[in-house]
Amino acid sequence: MYINLDERLQLILNMLNEYGEGYLVGGALRDIFLGLKPKDFDMATNIPMEELLHILNEYNPIIISEKYQVISIQVDEFKIEIARFRKESGVLDGRNPKNFYFVENIEEDLSRRDFTVNALAYNNNKGLIDKYSSLKDIENLELNIIGEDKVLRFAEDNTRIYRALYLISKYNFKLSNETKNAILSFKNHKKLNVSISGFGKLLDKILFDKYSYKSLKIMLECNLFKSFIPELSTNNLDDETIKKIVNIYNVYCKYNVFEDKTIGYAIIFLYSGKKIDDDCKYLVNSMVISETYLKKIGFNITDIILVKNLIYYSNIISRTINKETVKRMLFEFRNNKNVSKLLNFISFIHHNQGDYNEAVKKTLELLGRIQAIYFEGEVVFINDLDINLVDLYNIGLDLNISKESIRQDIYKQVNEGKLNNKKEDIINYIKERYSIKYDIDKVCSSGGIVYRINKDNKIEFLLVKILGGNWGFPKGHIEENETEIMTAIREIKEETNLETVIVDSDKFKKDISYITNMGELKYVTFFIAKATSHNVLIDLGEISEYKWCNYNDALKIVTYSSQRRLLQEARLYIFN
């Protein structure tokens, strides 16, 4: 069989076969036969490493392992690892072989591979070497462990179990009966030789792909969580609970929301606090368990809090709640995005249940309650406060005072009607509450969200980088006898040399305010400004660089959230 490889890969293989033997091996070949285009490639050779380093010197090879004689090179976009042929035997620690020695032929090297689907080898001289019926298993999407003693092969390297799960999650492979039985033999194994942090990294690879629910089912049924999260072992979860978890995770995978792993982990830990035959309240226990584990694998505190809140409020539509409960929930979730995650989570839980229609009805009722709070003009989320953490840092508070606790205090004062949600009023409250003696000066500025229509008839926005670092829009102080519009046009001209016209100033005029790092309270009025000239010449005394960007790129580049919101509103207005 001939495989038409990229000429750059073929060149490396030719170099190996000029000085010895070299083959393309492993997962890249598997992916090619699955119709995919790999970027990472493994090669195997009988050439000793010192000689190999000399042969491939022009590619600046990096030594990955002196012990096993493995090097890595980068050829344009291709990463290539090249290992010397070797054979392995014996169980050392569940991670490394007891013995290994270098060999001269590829067939012996292939015998140490994990699964048949990863045991192909190819070069132009010998064609495809398929010693273990690998092509058949790839075609059938079946995982077979290599070797007569299947249990021994997993004992040699415990991570082979997790590599099997990864292949299931990513490619929809299934375990052969022999391979599954070998994994089941580890069900009551006291400990697999993987660290807790290593286990966390493995989970990240296994649990967030199209078919991950199938891997999760195997992990739960085969007790593979036992060594790391005992609460997810079969001693604590009955068959019905495992089925629930897998069904919910199936829906999560179906809707492909893997960019947010918090929902995935909330599903996994949802029933972790529920003992067999225990119908009492368990959500608080599940929260504690999730926090304990997620801290160990290095989850950041913000995501841990979100996972805990998702678990705690997962049954909110089934509770008897009042307005204060809803407000408390909104406070905990901090913003609309996180509330949307909760609603998705609730939908996933009830999706395949007989009560789905009733759950939808109750979810809509909850949304109605949230909307009513909005219409009453109340501050819904802590992030809706007219003061943010940057303001609090710039206001001159003692560094030992918790800025987050101050925001929580302000949120409470505003929601109890004791304080207006206006920056100036909030600042006065903080000055009195925390004994700030100096006056905060007010400064007024004006600027423009500048756009143009490019040659492809697409809208682009002009961003400028202020000396000192942040990206945003041209703006500056309002001078004596100037209107806000006059200032916006002048500042755009002075900072960028562009001529502009203000668009619908009576309909689009947006104000933001913030505390500068000089401790000033700055009010800025922004208009939409359409560029009528083309040559940008920045004022290097104020601006370090500029960019014309499409909307999506601009949204990523603009530094402050207040100006990102302005950009969103401006784009919407321009299109309408």
From TrEMBL:
Q: Which GO terms describe its molecular function?
A: bis(5'-nucleosyl)-tetraphosphatase activity; metal ion binding; nucleotide binding; nucleotidyltransferase activity; tRNA binding
Kindly give the InterPro entries that the UniProt entry links to this protein.
Bact_CCA-adding_enz_type3_sf, NT_sf, NUDIX_hydrolase-like_dom_sf, NUDIX_hydrolase_CS, NUDIX_hydrolase_dom, PolA_pol_head_dom, Tetra_PHTase
Q: Which UniProt keywords apply?
A: Hydrolase, Magnesium, Metal-binding, Nucleotide-binding, Nucleotidyltransferase, RNA-binding, Transferase, tRNA processing
Q: Cite the SUPFAM superfamilies for this sequence.
A: Nucleotidyltransferase, Nudix, Poly A polymerase C-terminal region-like
Q: Which residues form the Nudix hydrolase domain?
A: 441-571
Keyword Signal attributed = no
As cofactor, the record names: Mg(2+)
Record CDD domains: NT_ClassII-CCAase, NUDIX_Ap4A_Nudt2
- What's the family? Belongs to the tRNA nucleotidyltransferase/poly(A) polymerase family.
Q: What is this protein called?
A: Bis(5'-nucleosyl)-tetraphosphatase [asymmetrical]
Natural source organism: Streptobacillus felis
